[in-house]
Amino acid sequence: MRKMQLALLALGATVLSGFATVKPATARDYPWCAQGGEYDYPGECAYSTYEQCQASVSGRLLYCGPNPLVAYGQVQQPQPHSRRKIRRPVPY
Q: Against a cut of 0.70, is the pTM above it?
């Protein structure tokens, strides 16, 4: 009985630690989307190339279209870090 309790406790801790490390999906940053059928607009935007998208939608009554967030520049681009100015002593 004691071994079963320890095993369940270990399993629960493992599952909880797995949930703690899950990162949110960023699939909407890819340029191509599978659209139509069960997908809302803009679709399943998880494809780097048009060919990948075409291979995925083949036989699924879907089509490929550009991701509007990427096509129209609405994806937040990482801002470049500004360089700090280094002050140097002025020679007299």
A: no
